[in-house]
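Exercise 7. Given the components listed, write out the predicted structure of the assembled complex. Treat all entries as one system.
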Amino acid sequence: MVLGGGAGGTLSANRLHRQLGAEADIVVVDADDRHVYQPGLLFVPFGMARPADLVRSRSAQLRPGVGFRQAVVQQVDLEANEVGLADGTSLAYDVLVVASGAVLLPEETEGLTGPGWGDTVHTFYSLEGAALLSSALARFEGGRVVVAMIDMPIKCPVAPLEFALLADSYFSRRHIRDKVSLTYVTSLDGAFTKPVCNRQLSGLLADKGIDVVTEFNTGTVDGEGRRLISYDDREVPFDLAVVVPLHGGAAYVGRSPGLGDELGFIPADEATLQAKAAPNVFVIGDAAGIAATKAGSVAHFEGETLVANVGHYLRGEPLAARFDGHTNCFIESGHRRALLIDYNNETEPLPGHFPGPIGLPLLKESRLNHLGKLAFEHLYWRVLLPGRDVPGVGAAMPRAGKRPEAAITT
Amino acid sequence: MPTRTYADIEVEVDAEGFFTDPSTWQEGMAPEIAREAGVGELTDRHWQVIKFMRHQYEESGSGPTVRVLGKTSGVGIKELYQLFPRGPAKLAARIAGIPKPRGCI
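Answer.
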């Protein structure tokens, strides 16, 4: 049983079906049948994508033979090996794959959903929010735009940075860039926290006139007074705030004793993806409480490990497949250019080329990477969700093409 | 790698003073690291956070965020900022000998 029909759940179910065939009865459970292409949300506010184009049927992405049950999960009973549904019925499982992602918790930040929410205070992390922000930006004629990441973990941690970079490009295109100030607010101690990224990219924001406020943990959003207030009483004024709300796991996790951590994510073995809660529970994607980045590429690379280990578990074998934390992200930097990063738990993002010595440039703005980001949407629906491998791109992080010497500080 | 000496023991740290190997940390080193980081004398409340950081790191392989500290360490977020000014998650991580909280780039 797979809980969640997003990227991780869909590709897991499809891979499991291909590997196990008729041996296994596979069902995906989700509360609705709307699969949102989340990487597209970033483009909606700038009129570069239309909300309706980002949504497809969840069930239509599943291989014939994989079941789909539209239902709200109430809780998981780890001892009975049962998933209780909101309608009072329950479903038994032999193996459970938790793929229910991360949810937005805007109400956890004081004032965020209060006066000004949807007016001066926005988010692009939901389809509705992104569409609303699109109209707000179109009406915006000048003033202070603040992009704030309240605290980790968040999905696609580079997205708020991309938003700031795309906003620079957007306002330039509208010839009002000189009337707009752009500020990027982060709870971390820099826009770039890894040494090589910091060295290679520190000029990127300054060159585009984007101010950075660091170690700012937003405690209160005052939409009427138009200011963010940190827990240590610093303030950032705004005319338009774009906030990434705090994230948590799916609500049922909190109702399932022993399953999740304090944020509702599922602690698991970093390498095997087996949940700490029970040997027959595995976790993939944003739902996992592991060090790996919350991103679609991670769910894709995890898929191979997860499916192999579910197979091992069913056959009573040791869980031999291991995930290395491999992450690969295009970072839109505006003006039709993008950067590419590729890393894992051991290796920070390095310069060079991907996937080998000849390929897309890493940690460097290029038009080719922007085209790569646009092409990714096609790959997502046609290759990632069906659970296929991307030709030339393995699950383990490639070393060829990277320049590790760039990591050595002198 | 640079090294520092705390409680008469030489340890490896990164460019910002975070332990590269958390297993080389000992409780006796914390007061010296705290002084160096500008935190001053460690009270019981500081220690509650430091011990929670170590525990979380051992459980999950990474240090907790300010939000997790506020929810589960028994010390609220406002007080965390009084104990460890400006960056509680970062400062407490450094004093507890665990890696710095990072984003992905």
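Discussion: The interface with chain A takes residues 15, 59-62, 65-68, 71-72, 77-78, 80-81, 85-87, 90, 100-105 of chain B (CB under 8 Å). Chain B is about 45% helix and 10% strand.
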